[in-house]
Amino acid sequence: MDFLTVSNVHHTYFSKKAVTEALSNIHLSIEKGEFVSFIGPSGCGKTTLLSIIAGLFEPTVGSVKIEGQEVFGNDSLSIGYMLQQDYLFPWKTIEENITLGLKLQNKEKEDQLLASKLLNDVGLPTIEKKYPRELSGGMRQRVALARTLAVDPKILLLDEPFSALDYQSKLKLEDLVSKMLKEYGKTAILVTHDIGEAIAMSDRIFLFSPRPGRLYRTFEVPEEIRKLTPFEARGHSSYSSLFQIIWKELESLEQQ
Question: Is the whole model's pTM more than 0.90, yes or no?
Answer without folding.
Answer: yes
